[in-house]
Amino acid sequence: MIKVASYNMRKSIGTDRRRRPERTLEVLLEVDADVIALQEADRRFGAREAVLTQSLLAEHSPWKPVQFGMRARSMGWHGNALLVRKEAEILGCAALHLPTLEPRGAVMADLRIQGQKLRVLGMHLDLSGLWRRRQAHAILTQLADLPPMPTVMMGDLNEWSAERGCLRDFAQHFAFAATGKSFHARRPMARLDRIMASPELAFGDAGVHHSLAARTASDHLPVWAEVRHR
What is the pLDDT of residues 134-193, one digit of tens each? Predict the structure, then answer.
């Protein structure tokens, strides 16, 4: 099994309104996934610096960031980032441009992890349902143009419905993990954060990570799932 996770870390600003990257890292260490998709991983203004610094990850975590080379001091693209185990091999990566009225994007990496190839895509979709569907279509179109590979997609979809909108679009090609409600962290009411897998993959256990640190580190809780090749 390969454990994947998605976390809208809210720039490490917790529900106590304090920015504490070390607390974010504490939550990630509790989840202990092999691959993590982060949303809101960079500061919003200026140089959009990464909140989890290279030195913090290198010295205190088992992960390395996938380098997309979009901005010198950012971790990813429009706040989307991917962390992988340091021993994982990164075969290729790309930042995906999405149709949008506000800064949005997605990031993708082809990995060899535990001896298996896996494509991972992280996203943070729009607040508007119309734009979410356009973004889902753009993601699926770009994936269709690539050589096939077992694929996991995950992120903050911002979709409040149970099965409509962009969820229906993704469900034509991907299965959803049975994670759970992840927003708001202090009183989860909505399944905004999702994990999806292509037909070559099967899900094992899945869930939402609840801990004292997770309930205060962000307004979202991390979601996680185990996947295996069929």
Answer: 999 999 999 999 999 999 999 999 999 888 999 999 999 999 999 999 999 999 999 999
20 CA to centre of own chain: 20
Burial bucket for residue 184 (CB in 10 Å: 0-12, 13-18, 19+): middle
* CATH class name, domain 1-227: alpha beta
Around 227, how many Cα atoms within 13 Å sit in the side-chain half-sphere? 31
What are the pLDDT digits (tens) for 11-43? 999 999 999 999 999 999 999 999 999 999 998
Q: Are 226 and 205 in contact (CB under 8 A)?
A: yes
Q: What are phi and psi of 13, to 5 degrees?
A: -95, 115
Reading phi first (left if > 0) and then psi (alpha if -120 to 50, else beta), residue 46 is in left
6 bridge partner residues: 37, 223
With 0.85 as the threshold, say if the pTM is over it: yes
* CA–CA gap between residue 180 and residue 131 (Å, rounded): 24
| 97/85 Cα distance (integer angstroms) | 26
Classified as helix, coil or strand, 17 is coil
Going from N- to C-terminal start, the domains of the chain cover 1-227
Closest by CA position to 61, among listed 90, 81, 36, 93: 36
Partners of 108 in beta bridges: 94, 121
**What's the Cα-to-Cα distance from 136 to each of 52, 58, 90, 123, 152, rounded to whole Å?**
28, 33, 25, 10, 14
| 171: its two tokens | 């469900």
